Amino acid sequence: MPCRLAMGLEIFNPIWLDWIQRIPSFLRRATKKVDPSQARPSVIGLAKGACPLGTVPIRRATKKDLKKSKLLLNNIHPQNKAPPGSYRASIEMKNTTRYFGVEGSMTVNNPQLKEGASYAQLYIYQGEGKNRNSIATGWMVDPILYNDKSSHFFAAWTSTGFESTGCFNTFCPGFVQIHKTVYLGSPLSVGSVAGKPIFLGLSIQEDKNHNWWLLFTSATVENHIVGYYPAEILFNSEDPRSIGWGGFVVGPPKGTSPPMGSGVLPVSTDASSFENIKFRNEFNNTIIPIPIHYDIIKDNPKCYELLNEGYKDDEVEFTFQFGGPGGQCAN
Fold this sequence. Notes:
The chain is mostly beta strands. It has helices at 63-72, 143-146; strands at residues 3-5, 55-57, 86-93, 101-107, 117-126, 133-141, 152-158, 167-168, 176-177, 192-193, 196-197, 199-206, 212-217, 224-229, 242-250, 272-280, 286-287, 294-298, 305-311, 318-323.
């Protein structure tokens, strides 16, 4: 993985970005430490050593990568209309207000795919059609995009419904990388430690400069900054926004649909789950969803399900299970 100068990201970031913000305004205070004895296993252990001072890791994109990425963008939810062969099991807030952040922790899985892609994500979006703005992040297994069958940390963005802007990871200008070891597209640890499943804790948050920050939680520190999407490229209207969490798959319209999550339905103790799901308001307060404000979306319960447990306890807070084996899912 090449390290590149933090102030030399022109090939990845817009040419008008003449300065890089190092930390979001909402993290001027010290980050909250997590008691190691209470921490769940961390999925982020992505590199042996950080990049040298003044540089950041950037996954090198080839012309072949860019072509594959462009072909797959239409499969990223949320879209105005999901393409044939795409299914989801998710919880989505009603589009009635302006959300300023979304966060949650998801189990990391490595479903075995014969074709297609499978991913779990949290996301925020606004607008319709060519005016659709969105950021999504989570883990995904996509043999076409990554040339392997492993789970990868990813993010995707657009400000035009993926018609003329946007991409996965750093395959196009947009994302400003800050972290020295954790980068978009990096492989993830999968499995369990001491009987506890590995979780990926993520958040997308707007700061007072209207930049959109991507952060993750490790086993000992609550907020690590991965980077941000500049205000100039996203969410430039006062329209309502929506957010969501869930599992998604895309496969051939008439072929075999891939497994979602761990590949089992939520009735199993091995099912995938989201925990600690929250949203942020304009005062940067985290709020737990209540039923009257969200919808449960299961567009193919024959193959994929969602079990909403709501607020469970002080450790996992709001949680739900999701997933399914896939198969012959076309109606």
